[in-house]
Design a protein that fits this description.
alpha+beta, 9 helices, Double-stranded beta-helix, three-stranded antiparallel sheet, single chain, seven-stranded mixed sheet, 17 strands
Length: 382
């Protein structure tokens, strides 16, 4: 019979705890997904060590028409979740196919059955492309917005104020987003992305542990004013989920979120929508949020900047990334965006940081037990 050392007898082995989430928007499983290798025949190039991947030969329409479409789309979604954002050049893809891809990226990776495609609060009812397409337009931007995101605020001279993740003011926010730019200026109009995984890895262990127990308010109520400026009513009916409805565009989410596809932790606050950490005083909240926002905007080594060409497509995971447009042009820039809804955000105390997750993967591979695990994906200094 084994004897337990005295020093170990009082140790409690607690199961992982879950912070956040909602019973009406919960995944069937929170186990990380494993890439099957179906995209290995496509050449690819990582944009930076921490974020971004370009797959030059992949055409969305061909994947959708393939007999192996479900496997290919699932692996594409896993790649997006691991690399943050994937770039596909010169896509001959219809709006309906973008809608189909957006829904399948989400459902094939285990999103709740109650989650569909998002209808943005300022999408005009009866719009030509339908409720599930957000037209990203420099013309509409000038009419209803300012570069600071908030049109009611005095315009800032800091372009970094635009960093955000899509629709985090919704109780059930986005998992994946797809953007195709079809009209663009001769120069300018780039988009930048930054990795939430990497920002988490840059926190000290003590700070990370502290933040893992906190929640924050995300507010998008300025869209009420935007809708008024654009001359149509705010969409108050269900916006892709029964939990996303009404005029009050506000939600509370964990400060540190687990991405269920990868099982990796990410910082989940953003300059555009996150207003206050609930458990702290306003002064404390302002200091901590300011520090986290600076980690995003001041670390150029954790950013990828994409220069669009006509009909390029970007697909990203809003659960663990931020992005911002560049307002450095006076010409017309227009694109079509599809945003799918995932689960209500949660933090799983049993999840790990990206660096630890990759180290575990490499250990499995080195032990010869890496069937179905992709060597080298996402590798690089963290």
């Amino acid at each position: 019979m084994l004897s337990v050392p005295k020093t170990c007898r009082n140790i409690a082995f607690n199961p992982p705890t879950i912070l956040g989430g909602h019973e009406k928007a919960r995944r069937q499983s929170i186990e990380p997904l494993v890439y099957s290798g179906s995209l290995d025949s496509f050449e690819h190039k990582d944009s930076t060590p921490s974020i971004g991947r370009e797959i030059p030969g992949l055409q969305i329409e061909k994947i959708l028409a393939s007999p192996e479409a479900n496997t290919l789309i699932r692996d594409l979604a896993i790649t997006v979740s691991e690399r943050g954002v994937v770039f596909l050049r010169n896509q001959d893809v219809s709006v309906n196919s973008l809608i189909e891809l957006g829904q399948r990226l989400s459902t094939l990776t285990g999103s709740p059955s109650s989650s569909g495609l998002h209808i943005h609060p300022i999408t005009e009812a009866g719009s030509e492309l339908g409720d599930q397409i957000s037209v990203i337009s420099s013309v509409k931007q000038k009419k209803g917005f300012a570069p600071t995101i908030d049109p009611l605020a005095e315009p800032s001279k800091f372009s970094s104020n635009g960093w955000h993740a899509d629709i985090t003011f919704e109780p059930v926010p986005s998992d994946y987003a797809i953007l195709k730019i079809h009209t663009l200026p001769a120069t300018g109009g780039d988009t930048l992305w930054a990795s939430g995984y990497e920002i988490y890895n840059r926190l000290s262990p003590a700070t990370a542990k502290y933040l893992e127990g906190l929640t924050a308010i995300h507010d998008g109520n300025f869209f009420n004013g935007v809708a008024e400026r654009l001359g149509h009513a705010l969409r108050t009916d269900a916006r892709g989920s029964e939990l996303n409805q009404g005029k009050n565009l506000q939600a509370v989410h964990p400060v540190i979120r687990t991405n269920p596809v990868t099982g990796w932790k990410s910082v989940f606050v953003n300059k555009a929508f996150t207003k206050r950490i609930v458990e702290l005083t306003k002064d404390e909240s302002d200091v901590i949020l300011g520090y986290l926002f600076n980690l995003v905007s001041l670390n150029h080594d954790n950013q990828v900047r994409f220069k669009w060409s006509k009909n390029d497509v970007a697909i990203w995971d809003n659960r663990s990334n931020w992005h911002t447009a560049t307002y450095d042009h006076n010409e017309v820039r227009i694109g079509d965006r599809v945003v799918s809804l995932g689960e209500a955000p949660y933090f799983d105390s049993g999840s790990v940081g990206r660096k630890e997750g990759l180290e575990r993967r490499e250990k499995i591979l080195s032990n010869g037990k890496g069937e179905g695990v992709r060597r080298g994906d996402g590798e690089g200094e963290n």
